Protein backbone atom coordinates (compact mmCIF):
# COMPACT_ATOMS: atom_id res chain seq x y z
CA UNK A 1 0.00 0.00 0.00
CA UNK A 2 1.35 3.44 -0.96
CA UNK A 3 2.22 5.23 2.29
CA UNK A 4 1.56 8.58 0.59
CA UNK A 5 -2.14 7.81 0.78
CA UNK A 6 -1.87 8.36 4.54
CA UNK A 7 -0.81 12.00 4.05
CA UNK A 8 -3.39 14.69 4.58
CA UNK A 9 -3.65 18.22 3.28
CA UNK A 10 -2.59 20.90 5.75
CA UNK A 11 -5.39 22.30 7.88
CA UNK A 12 -7.26 25.17 6.27
CA UNK A 13 -6.62 27.23 9.39
CA UNK A 14 -2.85 26.92 8.84
CA UNK A 15 -3.24 28.06 5.23
CA UNK A 16 -5.28 31.04 6.42
CA UNK A 17 -2.54 32.00 8.93
CA UNK A 18 0.20 31.64 6.30
CA UNK A 19 -1.76 33.77 3.83
CA UNK A 20 -2.30 36.53 6.43
CA UNK A 21 1.37 36.44 7.43
CA UNK A 22 2.43 36.67 3.77
CA UNK A 23 0.21 39.71 3.22
CA UNK A 24 1.66 41.41 6.29
CA UNK A 25 5.19 40.77 5.00
CA UNK A 26 4.29 42.30 1.62
CA UNK A 27 2.78 45.37 3.31
CA UNK A 28 5.86 45.72 5.54
CA UNK A 29 8.16 45.50 2.52
CA UNK A 30 6.20 48.16 0.63
CA UNK A 31 6.23 50.38 3.71
CA UNK A 32 10.00 49.97 4.01
CA UNK A 33 10.48 50.95 0.37
CA UNK A 34 8.24 54.01 0.85
CA UNK A 35 10.17 55.09 3.94
CA UNK A 36 13.65 54.73 2.44
CA UNK A 37 12.47 56.53 -0.69
CA UNK A 38 11.08 59.53 1.20
CA UNK A 39 12.97 59.42 4.49
CA UNK A 40 9.81 60.38 6.36
CA UNK A 41 8.14 58.34 9.07
CA UNK A 42 4.76 59.71 7.97
CA UNK A 43 5.08 57.63 4.77
CA UNK A 44 4.65 54.51 6.92
CA UNK A 45 1.25 55.60 8.24
CA UNK A 46 -0.97 54.28 5.39
CA UNK A 47 0.89 50.98 5.38
CA UNK A 48 0.46 50.66 9.13
CA UNK A 49 -3.29 51.24 8.79
CA UNK A 50 -3.52 48.64 6.00
CA UNK A 51 -1.52 46.15 8.05
CA UNK A 52 -3.82 46.68 11.03
CA UNK A 53 -6.89 46.13 8.85
CA UNK A 54 -5.39 42.93 7.38
CA UNK A 55 -4.65 41.68 10.88
CA UNK A 56 -8.17 42.43 12.15
CA UNK A 57 -9.85 40.90 9.08
CA UNK A 58 -7.66 37.81 9.38
CA UNK A 59 -8.47 37.31 13.05
CA UNK A 60 -12.21 38.05 12.83
CA UNK A 61 -12.64 36.28 9.49
CA UNK A 62 -10.68 33.26 10.67
CA UNK A 63 -12.67 33.06 13.87
CA UNK A 64 -15.90 33.13 11.86
CA UNK A 65 -14.86 30.63 9.16
CA UNK A 66 -13.40 28.13 11.60
CA UNK A 67 -15.82 28.72 14.46
CA UNK A 68 -16.84 25.05 14.65
CA UNK A 69 -13.31 23.75 15.04
CA UNK A 70 -11.89 26.41 17.33
CA UNK A 71 -11.94 26.27 21.14
CA UNK A 72 -15.05 27.70 22.77
CA UNK A 73 -13.00 30.21 24.77
CA UNK A 74 -11.17 31.49 21.69
CA UNK A 75 -12.58 35.01 22.00
CA UNK A 76 -11.49 35.25 25.62
CA UNK A 77 -7.97 34.04 24.87
CA UNK A 78 -7.84 36.25 21.80
CA UNK A 79 -8.82 39.30 23.86
CA UNK A 80 -6.13 38.55 26.43
CA UNK A 81 -3.60 37.99 23.66
CA UNK A 82 -4.38 41.32 21.99
CA UNK A 83 -4.20 43.17 25.31
CA UNK A 84 -0.86 41.53 26.12
CA UNK A 85 0.44 42.44 22.64
CA UNK A 86 -0.66 46.07 23.01
CA UNK A 87 0.92 46.39 26.46
CA UNK A 88 4.14 44.76 25.30
CA UNK A 89 4.28 47.02 22.24
CA UNK A 90 3.63 50.13 24.35
CA UNK A 91 6.26 49.29 26.97
CA UNK A 92 8.78 48.02 24.44
CA UNK A 93 8.20 50.96 22.11
CA UNK A 94 8.62 53.46 24.96
CA UNK A 95 11.87 51.86 26.12
CA UNK A 96 13.17 51.66 22.56
CA UNK A 97 12.28 55.30 21.87
CA UNK A 98 14.03 56.48 25.02
CA UNK A 99 17.11 54.25 25.06
CA UNK A 100 17.76 52.90 21.56
CA UNK A 101 16.24 55.15 18.92
CA UNK A 102 18.84 57.56 17.47
CA UNK A 103 18.04 61.24 18.13
CA UNK A 104 17.34 61.94 14.45
CA UNK A 105 14.41 59.51 14.55
CA UNK A 106 13.23 60.76 17.93
CA UNK A 107 12.95 64.29 16.56
CA UNK A 108 11.39 63.00 13.34
CA UNK A 109 8.63 61.27 15.29
CA UNK A 110 8.02 64.40 17.35
CA UNK A 111 7.84 66.52 14.20
CA UNK A 112 5.60 64.20 12.20
CA UNK A 113 3.29 63.12 15.01
CA UNK A 114 2.65 66.50 16.68
CA UNK A 115 -0.33 65.31 18.75
CA UNK A 116 2.08 62.94 20.55
CA UNK A 117 4.94 65.43 20.84
CA UNK A 118 4.33 66.16 24.53
CA UNK A 119 4.44 62.47 25.39
CA UNK A 120 7.55 61.82 23.29
CA UNK A 121 9.42 64.81 24.73
CA UNK A 122 8.62 63.63 28.26
CA UNK A 123 10.58 60.47 27.47
CA UNK A 124 13.72 62.29 26.35
CA UNK A 125 16.60 63.21 28.70
CA UNK A 126 16.04 66.44 30.58
CA UNK A 127 17.86 69.55 29.43
CA UNK A 128 19.98 71.52 31.91
CA UNK A 129 18.18 73.53 34.54
CA UNK A 130 16.46 76.35 32.71
CA UNK A 131 18.00 75.22 29.43
CA UNK A 132 21.03 77.39 30.21
CA UNK A 133 24.79 77.04 30.14
CA UNK A 134 26.47 76.46 33.54
CA UNK A 135 27.44 79.81 35.02
CA UNK A 136 30.88 80.94 36.09
CA UNK A 137 31.64 82.28 39.55
CA UNK A 138 31.03 86.05 39.75
CA UNK A 139 34.15 88.00 38.83
CA UNK A 140 36.01 84.73 38.40
CA UNK A 141 38.89 86.44 36.65
CA UNK A 142 39.13 89.33 39.09
CA UNK A 143 38.69 91.90 36.32
CA UNK A 144 36.38 94.89 36.18
CA UNK A 145 33.97 94.21 33.28
CA UNK A 146 34.38 97.80 32.11
CA UNK A 147 38.04 97.08 31.40
CA UNK A 148 36.93 94.69 28.67
CA UNK A 149 34.91 97.34 26.86
CA UNK A 150 37.66 99.78 26.02
CA UNK A 151 38.46 100.88 22.48
CA UNK A 152 41.53 100.81 20.35
CA UNK A 153 42.87 97.41 21.34
CA UNK A 154 46.02 96.76 19.31
CA UNK A 155 47.11 93.38 20.61
CA UNK A 156 48.28 90.91 18.02
CA UNK A 157 47.55 87.19 17.97
CA UNK A 158 49.85 85.13 20.16
CA UNK A 159 49.98 82.12 17.84
CA UNK A 160 51.62 81.91 14.45
CA UNK A 161 49.61 81.30 11.31
CA UNK A 162 50.77 78.00 9.87
CA UNK A 163 50.36 76.20 6.61
CA UNK A 164 47.38 73.94 6.28
CA UNK A 165 47.38 70.21 5.82
CA UNK A 166 46.73 69.56 2.13
CA UNK A 167 43.60 67.51 1.54
CA UNK A 168 43.20 65.49 -1.61
CA UNK A 169 40.01 66.39 -3.53
CA UNK A 170 37.37 63.69 -3.90
CA UNK A 171 35.60 62.75 -7.11
CA UNK A 172 32.94 65.42 -6.51
CA UNK A 173 33.42 68.19 -9.03
CA UNK A 174 31.67 71.02 -10.76
CA UNK A 175 29.98 70.49 -14.09
CA UNK A 176 31.39 73.05 -16.55
CA UNK A 177 28.96 75.90 -17.16
CA UNK A 178 28.81 78.58 -19.82
CA UNK A 179 31.50 80.48 -17.93
CA UNK A 180 34.07 77.93 -16.73
CA UNK A 181 35.67 78.49 -13.35
CA UNK A 182 39.22 77.56 -12.53
CA UNK A 183 40.15 75.34 -9.61
CA UNK A 184 42.47 76.96 -7.09
CA UNK A 185 45.12 74.54 -5.79
CA UNK A 186 44.51 73.90 -2.08
CA UNK A 187 47.70 75.41 -0.69
CA UNK A 188 46.10 77.87 1.72
CA UNK A 189 42.54 78.24 2.95
CA UNK A 190 41.18 81.70 3.81
CA UNK A 191 39.23 80.50 6.80
CA UNK A 192 39.09 81.60 10.40
CA UNK A 193 39.81 78.52 12.49
CA UNK A 194 40.83 78.89 16.15
CA UNK A 195 44.51 79.71 16.15
CA UNK A 196 45.68 76.81 18.29
CA UNK A 197 43.71 74.08 16.53
CA UNK A 198 45.76 72.27 13.87
CA UNK A 199 42.88 71.95 11.43
CA UNK A 200 43.18 74.39 8.55
CA UNK A 201 45.02 77.62 9.18
CA UNK A 202 43.65 81.00 8.17
CA UNK A 203 45.30 83.16 5.59
CA UNK A 204 44.55 86.71 4.54
CA UNK A 205 43.19 87.95 1.28
CA UNK A 206 45.10 90.88 -0.17
CA UNK A 207 44.57 93.97 1.97
CA UNK A 208 42.73 96.90 0.41
CA UNK A 209 41.31 100.09 1.79
CA UNK A 210 37.67 99.89 2.83
CA UNK A 211 35.39 101.40 0.20
CA UNK A 212 32.65 102.97 2.27
CA UNK A 213 31.24 104.81 -0.74
CA UNK A 214 30.87 101.76 -2.95
CA UNK A 215 27.62 102.24 -4.95
CA UNK A 216 24.83 99.69 -4.99
CA UNK A 217 21.15 99.49 -5.89
CA UNK A 218 18.35 99.84 -3.34
CA UNK A 219 17.38 96.22 -4.01
CA UNK A 220 19.07 93.23 -5.58
CA UNK A 221 18.73 89.48 -5.72
CA UNK A 222 20.70 86.52 -6.97
CA UNK A 223 19.31 83.70 -9.09
CA UNK A 224 20.26 80.19 -10.10
CA UNK A 225 19.93 78.44 -6.72
CA UNK A 226 18.29 75.03 -6.32
CA UNK A 227 16.55 74.86 -2.97
CA UNK A 228 17.52 71.87 -0.84
CA UNK A 229 15.22 70.55 1.86
CA UNK A 230 17.56 69.45 4.61
CA UNK A 231 17.70 66.03 6.17
CA UNK A 232 18.31 65.53 9.90
CA UNK A 233 20.86 68.02 11.32
CA UNK A 234 21.87 68.78 7.75
CA UNK A 235 21.40 72.53 7.41
CA UNK A 236 25.15 73.02 6.85
CA UNK A 237 25.49 70.49 4.01
CA UNK A 238 22.10 71.54 2.57
CA UNK A 239 22.99 75.23 2.46
CA UNK A 240 26.42 74.75 0.96
CA UNK A 241 24.81 72.50 -1.66
CA UNK A 242 22.28 75.25 -2.42
CA UNK A 243 25.05 77.77 -2.98
CA UNK A 244 27.16 75.37 -5.03
CA UNK A 245 24.15 74.73 -7.28
CA UNK A 246 24.57 78.37 -8.33
CA UNK A 247 27.87 77.29 -9.89
CA UNK A 248 26.49 74.14 -11.52
CA UNK A 249 27.57 71.62 -8.88
CA UNK A 250 25.84 68.29 -9.43
CA UNK A 251 26.35 66.82 -5.95
CA UNK A 252 23.66 66.67 -3.28
CA UNK A 253 23.54 67.36 0.43
CA UNK A 254 24.65 63.80 1.18
CA UNK A 255 27.82 64.23 -0.90
CA UNK A 256 28.59 67.31 1.15
CA UNK A 257 27.62 65.59 4.41
CA UNK A 258 29.93 62.65 3.70
CA UNK A 259 32.83 65.09 4.00
CA UNK A 260 31.42 67.53 6.54
CA UNK A 261 29.74 65.12 8.97
CA UNK A 262 30.30 61.44 8.12
CA UNK A 263 28.24 60.46 11.19
CA UNK A 264 24.57 61.37 10.73
CA UNK A 265 24.07 62.26 14.38
CA UNK A 266 26.75 64.96 14.34
CA UNK A 267 24.82 68.05 15.41
CA UNK A 268 27.10 70.76 14.08
CA UNK A 269 29.11 71.75 11.04
CA UNK A 270 31.22 74.83 11.68
CA UNK A 271 31.82 77.63 9.16
CA UNK A 272 35.49 76.60 9.04
CA UNK A 273 34.52 73.08 8.01
CA UNK A 274 32.26 74.42 5.25
CA UNK A 275 35.09 76.62 3.95
CA UNK A 276 37.48 73.67 4.03
CA UNK A 277 34.99 71.57 2.07
CA UNK A 278 34.47 74.21 -0.61
CA UNK A 279 38.17 75.00 -0.97
CA UNK A 280 39.37 71.40 -1.19
CA UNK A 281 36.49 69.48 -2.74
CA UNK A 282 35.02 71.81 -5.37
CA UNK A 283 36.14 74.16 -8.12
CA UNK A 284 35.20 77.35 -6.29
CA UNK A 285 36.50 79.20 -3.25
CA UNK A 286 35.14 80.31 0.12
CA UNK A 287 36.11 82.66 2.92
CA UNK A 288 34.54 83.17 6.35
CA UNK A 289 34.77 86.06 8.76
CA UNK A 290 33.04 87.19 11.94
CA UNK A 291 31.93 90.76 12.52
CA UNK A 292 29.90 91.27 9.36
CA UNK A 293 27.20 93.90 9.03
CA UNK A 294 24.07 94.41 6.97
CA UNK A 295 25.72 96.78 4.50
CA UNK A 296 28.47 94.26 3.76
CA UNK A 297 25.89 91.55 3.05
CA UNK A 298 24.06 93.88 0.69
CA UNK A 299 27.29 94.65 -1.16
CA UNK A 300 28.04 90.93 -1.54
CA UNK A 301 24.54 90.26 -2.87
CA UNK A 302 24.65 93.27 -5.21
CA UNK A 303 27.91 91.92 -6.66
CA UNK A 304 26.43 88.42 -7.06
CA UNK A 305 28.65 86.80 -4.43
CA UNK A 306 26.59 84.02 -2.79
CA UNK A 307 26.75 83.84 0.97
CA UNK A 308 25.64 81.77 3.94
CA UNK A 309 25.07 83.11 7.44
CA UNK A 310 24.64 81.29 10.76
CA UNK A 311 21.83 82.52 12.96
CA UNK A 312 19.68 81.54 15.91
CA UNK A 313 16.35 79.82 15.40
CA UNK A 314 13.60 78.79 17.80
CA UNK A 315 11.10 76.44 16.10
CA UNK A 316 7.55 76.31 17.42
CA UNK A 317 7.37 73.94 20.38
CA UNK A 318 11.16 73.82 20.65
CA UNK A 319 13.92 75.94 22.13
CA UNK A 320 17.04 77.77 20.96
CA UNK A 321 19.16 76.20 18.21
CA UNK A 322 21.64 77.37 15.59
CA UNK A 323 20.75 77.35 11.90
CA UNK A 324 22.35 78.20 8.55
CA UNK A 325 20.57 80.24 5.88
CA UNK A 326 21.44 81.20 2.31
CA UNK A 327 20.84 84.90 1.68
CA UNK A 328 19.67 85.56 -1.90
CA UNK A 329 18.44 89.17 -1.92
CA UNK A 330 17.62 92.40 -0.14
CA UNK A 331 15.20 95.30 -0.54
CA UNK A 332 15.87 98.60 1.21
CA UNK A 333 12.40 99.88 0.37
CA UNK A 334 10.76 96.99 2.21
CA UNK A 335 13.58 96.71 4.77
CA UNK A 336 14.00 92.96 4.30
CA UNK A 337 16.46 90.28 3.28
CA UNK A 338 15.32 87.33 1.19
CA UNK A 339 16.63 83.95 2.37
CA UNK A 340 16.44 80.37 1.21
CA UNK A 341 15.89 78.25 4.29
CA UNK A 342 16.73 74.54 4.13
CA UNK A 343 14.06 73.84 6.76
CA UNK A 344 11.30 76.40 6.06
CA UNK A 345 11.54 76.66 2.27
CA UNK A 346 11.76 79.53 -0.21
CA UNK A 347 8.79 81.74 0.61
CA UNK A 348 6.08 82.92 -1.77
CA UNK A 349 6.68 81.84 -5.39
CA UNK A 350 10.25 80.86 -4.54
CA UNK A 351 11.29 84.50 -4.07
CA UNK A 352 12.81 83.80 -0.67
CA UNK A 353 11.50 84.09 2.87
CA UNK A 354 11.40 87.74 3.90
CA UNK A 355 13.21 88.65 7.12
CA UNK A 356 13.11 92.26 8.38
CA UNK A 357 16.54 93.82 8.81
CA UNK A 358 16.14 94.16 12.59
CA UNK A 359 15.07 90.53 13.09
CA UNK A 360 17.79 89.32 10.75
CA UNK A 361 20.52 91.19 12.63
CA UNK A 362 19.25 90.18 16.07
CA UNK A 363 19.37 86.48 15.21
CA UNK A 364 22.68 86.81 13.39
CA UNK A 365 24.28 88.55 16.38
CA UNK A 366 24.14 85.31 18.39
CA UNK A 367 26.87 83.93 16.11
CA UNK A 368 29.18 86.96 16.04
CA UNK A 369 27.64 87.87 12.67
CA UNK A 370 29.64 85.17 10.91
CA UNK A 371 29.27 84.84 7.15
CA UNK A 372 30.67 82.58 4.44
CA UNK A 373 31.18 84.07 0.97
CA UNK A 374 31.53 81.56 -1.87
CA UNK A 375 32.95 82.73 -5.17
CA UNK A 376 34.74 81.57 -8.30
CA UNK A 377 38.48 82.10 -8.49
CA UNK A 378 38.55 84.83 -11.18
CA UNK A 379 36.42 87.08 -8.92
CA UNK A 380 38.69 86.92 -5.88
CA UNK A 381 39.87 90.50 -6.41
CA UNK A 382 36.23 91.64 -6.38
CA UNK A 383 35.60 89.74 -3.13
CA UNK A 384 38.70 91.35 -1.64
CA UNK A 385 37.48 94.78 -2.70
CA UNK A 386 34.00 94.25 -1.24
CA UNK A 387 35.37 92.92 2.06
CA UNK A 388 37.66 95.92 2.42
CA UNK A 389 39.40 95.87 5.82
CA UNK A 390 37.78 92.53 6.59
CA UNK A 391 39.90 90.91 3.89
CA UNK A 392 42.64 90.99 6.54
CA UNK A 393 41.86 88.37 9.16
CA UNK A 394 43.17 90.32 12.13
CA UNK A 395 41.33 93.45 11.04
CA UNK A 396 38.11 91.48 10.66
CA UNK A 397 38.46 90.13 14.20
CA UNK A 398 39.25 93.62 15.50
CA UNK A 399 36.12 94.99 13.83
CA UNK A 400 34.09 92.17 15.40
CA UNK A 401 35.54 93.02 18.82
CA UNK A 402 34.68 96.71 18.52
CA UNK A 403 31.13 95.93 17.38
CA UNK A 404 30.59 93.57 20.33
CA UNK A 405 32.10 96.03 22.80
CA UNK A 406 29.80 98.79 21.57
CA UNK A 407 26.74 96.55 22.01
CA UNK A 408 27.85 95.47 25.49
CA UNK A 409 28.34 99.11 26.48
CA UNK A 410 24.82 99.90 25.27
CA UNK A 411 23.34 97.00 27.23
CA UNK A 412 25.47 95.49 30.00
CA UNK A 413 23.12 92.49 30.18
CA UNK A 414 23.31 91.59 26.49
CA UNK A 415 24.44 87.97 26.79
CA UNK A 416 25.38 87.55 23.14
CA UNK A 417 27.29 90.84 23.04
CA UNK A 418 29.50 89.62 25.91
CA UNK A 419 29.88 86.20 24.29
CA UNK A 420 30.93 87.92 21.07
CA UNK A 421 33.45 90.02 22.98
CA UNK A 422 34.96 86.77 24.24
CA UNK A 423 34.92 85.22 20.78
CA UNK A 424 36.70 88.20 19.20
CA UNK A 425 39.31 88.36 21.97
CA UNK A 426 39.91 84.64 21.44
CA UNK A 427 40.40 85.12 17.70
CA UNK A 428 42.91 87.87 18.51
CA UNK A 429 44.80 85.60 20.89
CA UNK A 430 43.94 87.67 23.99
CA UNK A 431 42.85 84.76 26.12
CA UNK A 432 42.74 86.40 29.56
CA UNK A 433 40.33 89.04 28.30
CA UNK A 434 38.35 86.40 26.41
CA UNK A 435 37.96 84.18 29.49
CA UNK A 436 36.74 87.11 31.56
CA UNK A 437 34.21 88.10 28.90
CA UNK A 438 32.91 84.54 28.77
CA UNK A 439 32.55 84.55 32.56
CA UNK A 440 30.20 87.52 32.28
CA UNK A 441 28.27 85.98 29.38
CA UNK A 442 27.78 82.76 31.35
CA UNK A 443 26.11 84.71 34.16
CA UNK A 444 23.48 86.03 31.74
CA UNK A 445 21.47 82.89 30.97
CA UNK A 446 23.15 81.66 27.79
CA UNK A 447 21.32 78.83 25.98
CA UNK A 448 23.19 75.60 26.58
CA UNK A 449 23.19 74.73 22.89
CA UNK A 450 25.51 77.63 22.13
CA UNK A 451 28.35 75.23 22.94
CA UNK A 452 27.15 72.91 20.19
CA UNK A 453 28.20 75.51 17.64
CA UNK A 454 30.81 77.88 19.09
CA UNK A 455 33.94 76.64 20.83
CA UNK A 456 35.93 79.75 21.68
CA UNK A 457 35.21 79.37 25.43
CA UNK A 458 37.03 76.02 25.38
CA UNK A 459 40.03 77.63 23.70
CA UNK A 460 40.13 80.68 25.95
CA UNK A 461 39.78 78.80 29.24
CA UNK A 462 42.30 76.18 28.14
CA UNK A 463 44.92 78.74 27.21
CA UNK A 464 44.72 80.46 30.60
CA UNK A 465 44.90 77.15 32.46
CA UNK A 466 41.29 77.11 33.70
CA UNK A 467 40.88 73.41 33.04
CA UNK A 468 37.93 72.99 35.41
CA UNK A 469 35.89 75.39 33.28
CA UNK A 470 36.82 73.50 30.13
CA UNK A 471 35.70 70.22 31.68
CA UNK A 472 32.44 71.63 33.08
CA UNK A 473 31.45 73.00 29.67
CA UNK A 474 32.59 69.86 27.87
CA UNK A 475 30.66 67.52 30.17
CA UNK A 476 27.55 69.69 29.97
CA UNK A 477 27.77 69.68 26.17
CA UNK A 478 28.27 65.91 26.00
CA UNK A 479 25.43 65.16 28.44
CA UNK A 480 22.96 67.36 26.57
CA UNK A 481 23.83 66.65 22.95
CA UNK A 482 23.29 62.88 22.83
CA UNK A 483 27.11 62.75 23.00
CA UNK A 484 27.47 63.92 19.40
CA UNK A 485 29.65 67.05 19.61
CA UNK A 486 33.17 65.91 18.73
CA UNK A 487 34.75 69.22 19.75
CA UNK A 488 33.74 68.65 23.38
CA UNK A 489 35.69 65.37 23.46
CA UNK A 490 38.62 67.05 21.74
CA UNK A 491 38.91 69.69 24.44
CA UNK A 492 38.53 67.07 27.14
CA UNK A 493 41.47 65.33 25.53
CA UNK A 494 43.50 68.53 25.49
CA UNK A 495 42.95 68.96 29.22
CA UNK A 496 43.86 65.34 29.95
CA UNK A 497 47.01 65.71 27.84
CA UNK A 498 48.00 68.89 29.69
CA UNK A 499 47.49 67.07 33.00
CA UNK A 500 49.68 64.15 31.89
CA UNK A 501 46.76 61.71 31.68
CA UNK A 502 47.83 60.38 28.31
CA UNK A 503 45.59 57.30 28.31
CA UNK A 504 42.51 59.40 29.05
CA UNK A 505 43.56 61.92 26.40
CA UNK A 506 43.94 59.16 23.83
CA UNK A 507 40.47 57.82 24.64
CA UNK A 508 38.90 61.27 24.35
CA UNK A 509 40.53 61.95 20.98
CA UNK A 510 39.41 58.53 19.72
CA UNK A 511 35.82 59.25 20.76
CA UNK A 512 36.01 62.58 18.93
CA UNK A 513 37.15 60.76 15.79
CA UNK A 514 34.33 58.24 16.09
CA UNK A 515 31.93 61.17 16.08
CA UNK A 516 33.70 62.70 13.05
CA UNK A 517 36.48 60.68 11.39
CA UNK A 518 37.46 63.77 9.35
CA UNK A 519 38.14 65.93 12.42
CA UNK A 520 41.74 66.95 11.71
CA UNK A 521 42.39 68.58 15.09
CA UNK A 522 41.68 65.30 16.87
CA UNK A 523 43.70 63.34 14.30
CA UNK A 524 46.71 65.58 14.86
CA UNK A 525 46.34 65.58 18.64
CA UNK A 526 46.07 61.80 18.80
CA UNK A 527 49.09 61.32 16.55
CA UNK A 528 51.10 63.72 18.71
CA UNK A 529 50.54 61.97 22.03
| Termini Cα gap | 83 Å
| CATH fold type of one domain | Cathepsin B, Chain A
**Low-pLDDT residue spans:** 151-204, 207-212
Let me know the number of strands: 7
Helical amount: 40-55%
Rg on CA atoms, Å = 28 Å
Identify the CATH class of one domain: Alpha Beta
Structural summary, described in words:
The radius of gyration is 28 Å and the shape is globular. It is 47% helix and 8% strand. The chain has 529 residues and is an alpha+beta fold. Strands 1, 2, 3, 4, 5, 6 and 7 form a 7-stranded antiparallel beta sheet that branches. Among the domains are: 8-129; 219-391, Cysteine proteinases (Cathepsin B, Chain A). The chain is built from 20 helices and 7 strands. The longest helix has 27 residues, at 12-38.
What's a concise summary of this model?
The protein has 529 residues and is an alpha+beta fold. Helices cover 47% and strands 8% of the residues.
